Amino acid sequence: MPDDWWRESVVYQVYVPSFADADGDGVGDLPGITGRLGHLADLGVDAVWLTPFYPSPWADAGYDVADHRDVDPRHGTLDDFRALLARAHDLGLRVIVDIVPNHCSDRHPWFREALAAPPGSPARDRFVFRDGRGEHGELPPADWQSKFGGPAWTRVPDGQWYLHIFAAEQPDLNWENPDVAAEFADILRFWLDLGVDGFRVDVAHGLRKDLVPPLRDTYGRDSAPLNAPPEGGDHPFWDRDEVHEIYRAWRKLTDTYEPERIMVAEAGVSARRLPLYTRQDELHQAFNFFFLRCPWGADDFREVIGTSLDGARAVGTLPTWVLSNHDVVRHTSRYALPAGTDHAAWLANGGREPAPDTALGERRARAAALLCLALPGTGYLYQGEELGLPEVTDLPPDALRDPMWERTGHRVKGRDGCRVPLPWTADGPSYGFGPGAVSWLPQPPGWGERSVAAQTGRDGSFLELYREALRLRRAARGDVSFTWLPARDGELAFRKGAWLVCRVNFGAAPLPLPAGERPLLASGPLADGPGGPELPPDTAVWLAEGQHPAR
Q1: pTM (2 d.p.)
Q2: If DSSP codes are grouped into helix, strand and coil, which group holds residue 503?
Q3: Hey, how many other C-beta atoms are within 10 angstroms of the C-beta on 81?
Q4: Which residues belong to the active site?
Q5: Distance (Å, rounded) from C-alpha 421 to C-alpha 430?
Q6: Which of 178, 330, 471, 523 could form a disulfide with 366 if both were Cys (CB 3.0 to 4.6 A apart)?
Q7: 528 forms bridges with which residues in the sheet?
Q8: Paired strand residues for 199
Q9: What is the pLDDT of residues 248-300, one digit of tens each?
C-alpha cells in the first residue's frame, strides 16, 4: 500500500472493552482483538483504530490514563500489544492508537505529586490549579462547566481548585508548561518506535486554554453537547488558535518516521475552522461530525458533503466520513426516530417514546453505509455497524458505567448503550464475546441473531452488504474526482471517479434508474417498474457507467 494509504482507506474503530474477551473476565482485551483480526481482514478494511488500553482506574472507560506507556492488566500486556501489532501487519492491517493529551487520570504520578505539592509549585503548574473566587476562595475560579455535567472545577484540601473539562478524575493538563509538551513528544515516540501506524487525538480542540488572569467566564458557551462545534475563535478553552502550535510540532516528529504515520483529530469545531487542523503541516485528518449528525434528507446531505469536500480540498486533503462512534447513539437507531428527537431524553425513558421504527432505521442505515463508502476520502466504521447493531436502550441503572450518569444526578444515561459488547456467535456464553457468561455491560436477549456467525453467508445481511461494498470500493480507488449528477426530487446522485455512480432515494416514491447505468450493489431490493428497475425510498444503489474494473 502506498505511503498515502490513509487518503482513501477504511478504518474500523475497535472499542477495546467491548470487542472480544480472551480471558473470560467480561472485559475486552488485546488477545481477544488479536484472535478476531481475521474478521476485519475478511471485512475488507485497511486499518484498525484502538480506543485506550492504557493503565486506568476506569473513571471514563480508559480515557482517564494513569500511564501512557503501558497496557492496563485488564486488557493484557505490552507483549500482547506487540503480538496484536504483528498479526495486524501480517494481515495487511494498519494500527492506529488513541492518544489522550487533554487530561490524565487523577491517579497519574504527576497529579499525585501535584496534590502533595504546595500552591505555585512546578508540580502544580503541569495542571491548571487556581485560587477560587469569593471572600474565602469558596467559589470556582470561573463558571466553566464540565462536559459530563456540573462545574469543571474541584477544590482540594488546601483551598485551591483544579480544572477538569470532563470528569473530576480527569484533571486537565497545562499545555503552556514545557514539561507537558516534552512528555507527549516522548509518548508519541514510544508508540511509533513500537510500530504503530498513527494516532487518533482525543479532544484535539481543547488542549490550549486562555489562562491569563482573571479567567474569563464562558457565559453559557460551554453548554453545547459533547463534541458539538463551538463558535470558534475566542472561547476560553475550545478551539483556540494556539492549539495548532502543538500539532505542527507533532507533525515534524511523525514525519521523521517511514513509512508515513498519520494523525486524526477528534475536533468538535465549526465547519469553517475544521480544515485548520488538517493543513499540510498539521494533522492528516479530522473526524467529520457534521456528516454523522446530518438529518436524513437529500438537501441536508448534499450541503454537508459539499461543505466537507470544499473545506478539505482547500488545505490539500480529503474528508473523513463517519456514521457512528463510541460517543453517540448508533445510527441504526437514530435513523429509526422522528427528526428532531432529543436522544438524551429518549434514552432516559428507556427508548420507548418515541417508539423507534426499527425497519425504517435498518433501511436507512444500509443506505447510509453505501453513501458513506462511495464518497472520496476515508471512511470510519464503528464496531458492530457492519452487523446493523442498534442502540441498547434498556440497560438497568445499576449497570451504567458512563460518568455522565453520576455527574448529572442520574438524569443523563450517557453512552453505554452504544458500547455493549459485540455478538460473535448465535448462542453460547456472552454470544461468543468471551469464554465466560458475563460481559462488563449486559447484552440484550436476541443479540446472537445479529452476530457475525448468524450473518456470514446470509444473502441480504448487513455483514454481507458491507463486505461487498468494501470489495467494490477497493476497485474504485485511485481517482478521487467527484461530480454531482442531476437529481430528481428527494434524490442524491453523484459520480466518484470515472465510473462509480451512487444514488440515494430520500423521497417517498420509487425512482426509475437511468438508462446506461448498470446496478452493482443496492442497500435493499430494487423495485420492478414499468420501464425497468426502480430505487425504492430510503434505499441507495451503486451503478457503473461505461467500462469498470469492479466485476
Answers
A1: 0.96
A2: strand
A3: 25
A4: 202, 266
A5: 8
A6: 523
A7: 533
A8: 97, 263
A9: 999 999 999 999 999 999 999 999 999 999 999 999 999 999 999 999 999 99
